[in-house]
Specification:
This protein is mainly beta. The protein has one helix and six strands; from the N terminus they run E-E-E-E-E-E-H. It has one domain: SH3 type barrels. 7% of the residues lie in helices and 47% in strands. It has a six-stranded antiparallel beta sheet, with no helix packed on it. The longest helix is centred in the last third of the chain and has 6 residues. The radius of gyration is 12 Å and the shape is globular. The model has no long low-confidence stretch (mean pLDDT 89).
Length: 83
C-alpha cells in the first residue's frame, strides 16, 4: 500500500510493535489525536501521548494489516495528507 502515509490516522486501532522504549511495545488502542510529532492513543481508560519517531506500529487500513514506521509519518497531518 503506497499511500499509507497519506491515510488519516485518527480513529484507527493501532498496536505498537517495536520501540526503543520497551515500555511502549504492546500498547493497543485507538488514535484520538495526531500532532506533528505525536500520536495520542486511547488505551483502555488512559490517553497516552507517544512520539511518532520512537515507534513502529501496525494498523488495519483498507482491510489489510499494515506495519508503519513512525518516522515515515512525521510532520503535520494536514501536510502529510497533501503529499
Amino acid at each position: 500500500m503506497n499511500d499509507v502515509i497519506r491515510h488519516e490516522l485518527i480513529g484507527l486501532e493501532i498496536e505498537v510493535t517495536a520501540s526503543k522504549n520497551k515500555s511502549l511495545v504492546g500498547i493497543k488502542g485507538k488514535v484520538v489525536d495526531e500532532t506533528k510529532n505525536t500520536l495520542k492513543v486511547m488505551a483502555g481508560s488512559r490517553v497516552l501521548t507517544i512520539m511518532k519517531n520512537a515507534i513502529m506500529f501496525k494498523a488495519n487500513i483498507g482491510g489489510k494489516a499494515v506495519e508503519i514506521d513512525g518516522n515515515c509519518i512525521m510532520g503535520r497531518p494536514e501536510d502529510r495528507i497533501k503529499k
